[in-house]
Specification:
The chain has helices at about 50-55, 80-85, 100-105, 115-120, 125-145, 160-170, 190-205, 220-225, 240-245, 250-255, and strands at about 10-20, 20-30, 35-40, 65-70, 70, 85-90, 180, 210-215, 225-230, 235-240, 300, 305, 340-345, 345-350. By secondary structure, it is of the alpha/beta class.
């Protein structure tokens, strides 16, 4: 196993990225020393993920240089950068949910495969041996991160925390010299965050891999990082040890906050409670009772008008229209059937 001194460093010099009229990165410089955990922090929109895309070959900067072990990375395609030993994870989970965990991890071994499509398809002896070696290495890495028992399960059936660990394992399957972790504990609870923090330390110490970390969890960053670079609106505003960065006034203003109540960082003094009983010579005068609230005007729900307000002018009553008189009927004549009358169930014949 190679020593830490032989590991390459990552040097970022005056990198600028512009999207039309928007400057996402403005002459940013920092260096990730071999065998260290370097954190890149800042508020949302500061340019952290843009920097990761530059380092992995997704974006080409408008200016500046990125050198890894003496090799210039600017202008190289992503697969060529991965071949030089730079691997990354993503903010959002980018696994194949229907494939097993082992199959997802084998994707990280693709650039190390030499058998080719024909040899692998025909299952030639050298291709079978190579596949066996890669699967053994995948199993080692999975056991190292505590997901060895999950290799045969579909990735989409795992919990969120386990899927994030599978992403980290796939990046390790690239056999990187430096690992770029983009928010590895986002959405995790305290227990899962502690497990990932332990895994990151183990990767640095056990595998001797440098780590560049983007994370918003300041407890994690200040607990495991050897050095911290802070971005704000695409500019570097601080770079140093966690203790130095934590005390930097510009970092406090832009990202960490003062942690005090008040305006512009002014500390509001705490008020201490006095004794429960005090003598008459020091007893404070009782505070005056607050004045009673002014009574609200009564409200009549029938008129929807506050009493005391002038009454509205009454509307004139509508004049009823005269009803039409029913048509008069001519008097009954002899022989008219209407002359029939019924009185006490007695039928009287009309006059003849």
């Amino acid at each position: 196993m190679t020593t830490v001194a032989a590991k390459p460093s990552l040097a970022v010099s005056d990198v600028s990225v512009r999207f039309a009229g928007l400057t996402a990165l403005d002459s940013v410089s920092f260096e990730v020393e071999p065998g260290t955990i370097h954190a890149l922090i800042g508020p949302n929109g500061a340019g952290k993920s843009t920097m990761f895309n530059v380092l992995s070959g997704v974006y080409r900067p408008a200016g500046g240089s990125v050198r890894f072990g003496g090799k210039e990375l600017v202008g190289l395609p992503p697969h060529a950068i991965a071949g030089l030993g730079v691997a990354r994870t993503f903010q959002n989970i980018a696994l194949f949910p229907a494939a097993t965990v082992e199959e997802n991890l084998m994707l990280g071994r693709h650039h190390l495969t030499r058998a080719g499509f024909l040899g692998a398809g025909l299952r030639l002896p050298f291709a079978v041996r190579e596949d066996r070696r890669h699967r053994a290495r995948v199993s080692e890495i999975a056991e190292f991160l505590g997901i060895g028992s999950l290799l045969g399960l579909p990735a989409g059936e795992l919990s969120y925390g386990d899927q994030k660990r599978v992403e980290m394992a796939r990046a390790l399957c690239v056999e990187p010299a430096i690992l770029l972790l983009d928010e590895p504990v986002a959405g995790m609870d305290a227990t899962e965050t502690g497990e990932v923090a332990t895994a990151i330390r183990d990767i640095r110490d056990g595998l001797e891999i440098s780590i560049l970390l983007v994370e918003h969890d300041m407890g994690l960053v200040m607990g495991i990082a050897d050095r911290v670079t802070v971005l704000d609106f695409g500019r570097r505003i601080a770079d140093g040890t966690p203790a130095t960065v934590r005390a930097d006034p510009e970092v406090i203003r832009a990202y960490l906050g003062t942690g005090h109540d008040g305006v512009d960082g002014a500390v509001v003094p705490a008020v201490k409670a006095g004794p429960a009983e005090a003598g008459p010579e020091i007893a404070a005068a009782p505070a005056p009772a607050p004045p009673p609230p002014e009574p609200r005007p009564a409200f009549n729900p029938n008129t929807f008008r506050e009493e005391g307000a002038p009454a509205p002018e009454p509307e004139p009553a509508p004049v009823p229209e005269p009803e039409a008189a029913p048509p008069s009927e001519p008097p009954a004549t002899e022989g008219d059937p209407r002359a029939w009358a019924w009185h006490e169930n007695e039928k009287k014949e009309p006059p003849s």
